[in-house]
Amino acid sequence: MEASVKQIIKAFGEILTSVTCNRGEVIHQSNARCNKIFIVQSGVLRSYYFREGKDITAHFAMDYSIIGAVDSLLRQTTSIYSIEALEKSKILVMEYSEMELFLDKNPRLERLARQVSQWLYLDLVERLEGMMFLSAEERYSHLLNRYPNITQKVNLGYIASYLGITQETLSRIRKSR
Asked: Which CATH number belongs to the domain containing residue 79 in this structure?
């Protein structure tokens, strides 16, 4: 995916805005409409929502990953998700409407955009299948394979939430390794 994201950065450079976010900064707030796509150049972002008073992590984005409130982008409605920086992060911001206009003017880039969309879709399917068919330990192993240094950058509570397990279960898994 990193290579595709770097291609996106190069191809869409004229409509990208570089922004630095501080740790804890919320770049999209839930219950608001999101019209931006965020590309992480360095740092860590997470999307999360609240359910029954619990903070639930839905997605992490690290170096050369893409994140956004997709429910809002595609439906043009408010989103249940918030997106925050977990450490100082350098991101590129692209307005969704500008991307659409840019693609209209540059149809040769449609294929690249489609490939990135397909990768993001497969990532979502993989996550869903993992929640349905893998044990907690297997989900943790998969996460470490995808993001080898995530435990140095992300609070273990967020990791447990993302994996759909308690912090105690995560601690037991980590201890048994």
From this structure: 2.60.120.10
Residues 47 and 67: beta-carbon distance below 8 Å: yes
Number of domains composing the chain: 1
Q: Is 32 a member of any domain?
A: yes
d(CA 50, CA 157): 14
pLDDT in tens, 72-124: 988 999 999 999 999 999 999 999 999 999 999 999 999 888 888 888 888 88
Question: What tokens were used for 44?
Answer: 């860590």
DSSP H or E run through 127: helix 110-133
Question: Does residue 140 lie within any of the structural domains?
Answer: no
* The model's pTM: 0.91
Kindly state whether residue 114 falls inside one of the protein's structural domains.
no
Determine the 3-state secondary structure of 63 from DSSP: coil
Q: Among 103, 98, 41, which residue's Cα sits nearest to residue 66?
A: 41
β-strands 45-51, 82-85 pairing: antiparallel
